[in-house]
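Narrative of activities, Objective 1.

The group set out to show that a structural description can be obtained from nothing but a protein's sequence at a throughput compatible with the screening campaign. Below is one input-output pair from the validation batch, recorded exactly as produced.
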Amino acid sequence: MTASAQDVRDAAAKLQDQVVKWRRHFHQHPELSNREFATAKYVANYLKKLGLEVKTGVAHTGVVAVLDSGNPGPTVALRADMDALPVKEMNELPFRSQAMGGYNGKSVPVMHACGHDTHIAMLMGAATILSENKSSLQGKVKFVFQPAEEGVPAGERGGAELMVEQGVMQGVDVVFGLHISSDLDVGSVEYRDGGIMAGVDPFKIVIKGKQSHGAYPWQSVDPIVTSAQVIMGLQTIVSREIKLLDNAAVVTVGSIHGGVRSNIIPDKVEMLGTIRTLNPVARNKVYQSLPNKVEHIAASMGAEAEVTLPLEQSYPITYNDPALMSKMLPTLKRTAGEEHTLYTQAVTGAEDFSFFQQQVPGLYLFVGGKALDMPREKAPDHHTPYFVIDESGMQLGVELLTNLTLDYMKSAKH
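Output recorded for this entry:
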């Protein structure tokens, strides 16, 4: 096999029906984070049939397989995430999910509402093509089927961070991953050098006041009113302190709890939130401003404030190595066509693929999953009950994973 785009395209087209079958199986049998037992078993059994060296139980339920060509060269890692979400599917697909699972002690419906089922199937497709052409490879391919990208249950660890700790990136030279997108046309790929997805920092704020009867607020130091002022003040960090032409950022309060009755002003309010940034400059600015704002607003109201910020981001910035992006851009254009290879703006969603990119240079791409006849504004969002993907888009994903591997191996100097 040569590395021509047509050769890979023909192989992916021949395999497309099987890739669709795999995707539908995973879609109909979704599993939550750190609970991907049947998914992992299904994947591992197939990879063993390909003759790969397979390791299971990585980061709880992850599967890692190695294809060794026997020829000298780099080790290329390809990653797919496997977990689903606690979402009830509202589509009328014949293979829709009716699965239930346990999430933080509750029984919940489960759905592949973010396309991870397609990611698994596409990586299995790429593993098939690369395995069938083992002798023409130069180096090794490590296929990483990762659990718990969506976040682990309370009190647990997992995902890419734990995979890194367990040595999955040892000996790897480069890592590639992709995400299907419900609002990007089938046949298109989006790329960006530098930060493509945000880093995430959770924060906690506790406002301490003085309790009183709700009828006599002058006897209180009201933490609820203080919290309202704090929340509004936090919005000015991005709108008035971040140079938005150069840096994007989000500061969101997503949870606020205080009080037990309508006629009692409580003595304490707790807020939980998230900071999302795309580079260290913006992150440092938010880290400086947030506690300063909170503490001074609280003091102006006669209250006290405790702000908890993590030393390290829960998810780092998903950062596409600029040199690697430049090197592999011709592969994207050759695979998808120049007119369908689109430079994209960064998004404030997050991805734990970023932990892999902290270890080795990596690229993370978006591949189209929207039917061409569907208006973009009507495409169902990710993480919603009506999320849907045009399965024909998976062929390009298989081609991209395969071509990125082949082309990197050919160009690498060792």
